[in-house]
Design a protein that fits this description.
Elements (H helix, E strand, L loop, with lengths): L2 E6 L4 H10 L4 E4 L10 H13 L5 E6 L3 H7 L7 E3 L3 H9 L5 E5 L5 H13 L6 H13 L5
Parallel strand pairs: 1-2, 1-3, 3-5, 4-5
Helix pairs in contact: 2-3, 4-5
Length: 148
């Protein structure tokens, strides 16, 4: 069982609710949206990303209409490597090569069936380390304002 932060805006609300049912075996912390009424994605996405960065949650899933906005918000938080994935192959590579700790999905462009497949792969795939670890360390240096 994993502790997963989940958040959406109005455009991702329906998919978020389906994902919550799908992931019922995990401990989910829902940061909103609470309905399909219009809200601003930075409000919910930032809080979920902070929960992952502070290790209150193991991983996070962010959902907005395209996934682009939530990806930008997630990656503004130090320690977050948010990956917008539209295929299971992208999800696998985001974990193997980038140790992505936040998965970003599009509420308008993927079905909940595809989202479930992407999530399964993303949750099960391990980080490869090796040469990829060096790259993660460089990202951390950038976050800390250190020279490369």
């Amino acid at each position: 069982m994993m502790r997963i932060a989940i958040a959406s805006d109005h455009a991702g609300f329906e998919l978020k609710e389906k994902i919550k049912k799908y992931l019922e075996d995990h401990e989910l912390q829902d940061f909103g949206a609470i309905s399909s009424d219009s809200i601003d994605y930075p409000q919910t996405g930032f809080q979920a990303a902070k929960a992952v960065a502070s290790q209150k949650c193991d991983r996070g899933i962010l959902i907005c209409g395209s996934g682009i906005g939530m990806s930008i918000v997630g990656n503004k938080v130090d320690g977050i490597r948010a990956a917008l994935c539209h295929t299971k192959e992208f999800a696998e590579l985001s974990r193997k090569h980038n140790d992505a700790n936040v998965l970003v999905l599009s509420g308008r462009f993927i079905s909940h069936y595809l989202a479930e497949t992407i999530i399964d792969v993303w949750l099960k795939t391990k980080f490869e380390g090796g040469r990829h670890q060096r790259r993660i360390e460089l990202i951390t240096k950038i976050e800390k304002g250190e020279k490369l």
